[in-house]
């Protein structure tokens, strides 16, 4: 399927389920760019879950995000219990203007259902010459270091750095040791996981994906990853007056919908923050990136950019069973 | 030794080596609070290294930090090639005022020699009711994921969250898999390291601490830790017009002094960023912390606070050989 066809299919499924035009376009765009960049975790196979969330009655199908200019460096977007991506799009012009004026600025998105990879948001800012840092909680599936049961979310964090004439440096990773979707895949295939990924319902280490889904996931990187995940809970939650992963899960009332919480996006303008030394800073940054290449280490976004070049030219292979399932959802 | 005696000893060594009164007091304070909180990595045993840096001729012994009010949410402190902590102290009032007015604000410290744990700085901000995030590069001792030699620094990151009537939530960790000082200790004791800590000079995994010191360290958490470390390079380096760890090492000219680069400190006022929901946010944050305690998981700062209660009452045991070495440095 071409990328246009993927967008159109996603849009039809979402709007057919009842989502307003603006929200359906925003979510379909995320799905399209995820397929484009070979990030299946946010691609077409997430549509059935979106439809479940759309039909739950908890998600606002047509909330128009309210943008509030709070301070010279803070914009707040009340998503009104709609999907997050439209809120991001509506608040971005103000965030960009504030970052360019102040050097550092933040966008606090409140009360959004989260279905949006963070890297497309970060890239929207690097495309404008800004550095960006975005984070969200999720649901309380992940045990803290030394713990036995879910408390933290899978808590993604994404960062982007603009590079003149090149793809930006971008990473976007979950702070859980494994993506929850990958854990679900292991369960359905019956393949084991290594130790360090999850705990069983009794709070002890397990190599059984199913037991880890019923028990708790673990963070990457031991106590350091656990601390970073806790920071994301606090910064993208209580700091902006919004839910932790624990509070999001309570709000969910065991309906297993998309998490509902906030999102924190920070934008930084090197031209302001580096003062008179922006060219020197850029040279130091590029020397760092050259250092990766010289020793054969890949930058985290290279795989996505290679996929992008390929899929724009050749389109995307969509498994037939998934395609048929989505066509059925349309009707 | 009492904490007062530790401060006095550190101050005499530093000022005796030629450091100005203001800088000697600032560095001695860091050494005292590190001993107080049982963080030996920034305690008395670092004084000989400080003296080497002081006598190198590269460090300014008496630079008065220049504070520049750049934008409503950005303050810059030119440390003038002095130690970093005095620059932090001089810029903090402006950072605090900006965070309280704007919700989010940043302090960019430029051209500082770094000897300062980050958690005392973060705590200085949580004491005022602000959340804080601080980071710095170091020297290019750490290989990126998939790489073979040093490129990234040990790149510490520290975060603090204020809690009413309680110690703040604070973490401060190196993004290397092991602290470099611990690696040096292993070398001197001849004890091995597990795989995943370092690479030998040939770029292959090693369990020999000495080989890892001559080769490269690795980050914690695989490619995610490597990405986080790269973010710290970019945000606390080129973003603020300052050196990466690679550039810091070049500046060092193999003298093995303290790294010379920048530092980025961000401060956040929940009262502004949470808007009308600051009380609700606080309740969600405290429920998260309760969740740690209920499952027997420790918060990252608990060990330090326990040490603090003990050393304030009982003082600190200083090994006699170290004490004698420091007394010799005094004269």
TrEMBL record, chains A, B:
<protein>
    <submittedName>
        <fullName>Oxidoreductase</fullName>
    </submittedName>
</protein>
<dbReference type="InterPro" id="IPR003767">
    <property type="entry name" value="Malate/L-lactate_DH-like"/>
</dbReference>
<dbReference type="InterPro" id="IPR043143">
    <property type="entry name" value="Mal/L-sulf/L-lact_DH-like_NADP"/>
</dbReference>
<dbReference type="InterPro" id="IPR043144">
    <property type="entry name" value="Mal/L-sulf/L-lact_DH-like_ah"/>
</dbReference>
<comment type="similarity">
    <text>Belongs to the LDH2/MDH2 oxidoreductase family.</text>
</comment>
<dbReference type="GO" id="GO:0016491">
    <property type="term" value="F:oxidoreductase activity"/>
</dbReference>
<dbReference type="InterPro" id="IPR036111">
    <property type="entry name" value="Mal/L-sulfo/L-lacto_DH-like_sf"/>
</dbReference>
<dbReference type="Pfam" id="PF02615">
    <property type="entry name" value="Ldh_2"/>
</dbReference>
<keyword id="KW-0560">Oxidoreductase</keyword>
């Amino acid at each position: 399927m071409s990328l246009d066809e993927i967008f159109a299919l996603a849009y039809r499924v979402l709007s057919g389920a009842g989502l307003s035009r603006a929200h359906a376009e925003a979510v379909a765009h995320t799905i399209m760019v995820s397929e484009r960049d070979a990030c299946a975790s946010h691609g077409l196979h997430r549509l059935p879950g979106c439809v479940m969330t759309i039909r739950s009655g908890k998600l606002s199908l047509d909330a128009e995000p309210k943008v509030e200019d709070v301070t010279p460096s803070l914009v707040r977007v009340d998503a009104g219990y709609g999907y997050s991506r439209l809120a991001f799009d509506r608040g971005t012009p103000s965030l960009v203007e504030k970052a360019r004026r102040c050097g550092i600025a933040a966008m606090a998105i409140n009360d959004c259902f989260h279905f949006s990879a963070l890297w497309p948001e970060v890239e929207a800012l690097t495309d404008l010459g800004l550095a960006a840092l975005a984070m969200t909680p999720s649901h309380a599936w992940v045990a803290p270091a030394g713990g036995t049961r879910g408390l933290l979310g899978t808590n993604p964090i994404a960062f982007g750095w603009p590079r003149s004439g090149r793809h930006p440096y971008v990473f976007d990773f979950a702070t859980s040791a494994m993506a929850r979707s990958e854990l679900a895949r292991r369960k359905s295939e019956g393949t084991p996981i290594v130790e360090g990924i999850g705990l069983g319902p009794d709070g002890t280490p397990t190599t059984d994906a199913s037991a880890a889904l019923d028990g708790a996931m673990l963070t990457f990187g031991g106590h350091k990853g656990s601390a970073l995940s806790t920071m994301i809970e606090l910064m993208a939650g209580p700091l902006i007056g919004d839910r932790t992963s624990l509070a999001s899960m309570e709000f969910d009332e065991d309906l297993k919908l998309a998490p509902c919480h906030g999102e924190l996006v920070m934008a930084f303008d090197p031209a302001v923050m580096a003062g008179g030394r922006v060219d020197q800073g850029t040279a130091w940054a590029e020397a760092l990136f050259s250092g990766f290449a010289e020793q054969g280490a890949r930058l985290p976004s290279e795989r996505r950019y290679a996929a992008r070049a390929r899929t724009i030219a050749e389109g995307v292979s969509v498994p037939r069973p998934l395609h048929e399932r989505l066509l059925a959802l349309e009707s």
